[in-house]
Amino acid sequence: MEVYINSLILNAIVISLTSLLLPNLKITGISGALFTISALTFVNSTIWDPTLFSYIPEELSKRAIIITLINGFIFWGIVKILPGIEIKGLLTAIFAPILITIFTYLANRYLNEVNFIALLKDILERVINLKEQLIKA
Asked: Of 32, 66, 92, 104, which has the fewest beta carbons less than 10 angstroms from its beta carbon?
């Protein structure tokens, strides 16, 4: 259960960062946004070979451009079907999955070991202690 919650929090961070950088991508509901990220991850893992995207930065070819465009159309379709995210424009649909992939890679690499449940409990304890100290003063 803890791993699942950490994964949800990482996905929330990823979609939030992506929507902050892309003005035409708007989160209207966090649950829908998480479903969208999960659906995109599922579709990409079943349609594409996972190593396919690792070759794109090395080789800017017609094939890489077509894969990127198709992935953008898939993202656009998922966003149109599921609630929680609004998107305007094809360029946003193309760049959003690229940013999501980059942020997911970075989050998994640098934040995967963070226990968000313990972190949230610690923050809550500190806030409660601070409140008690302020009341005593």
From this structure: 66
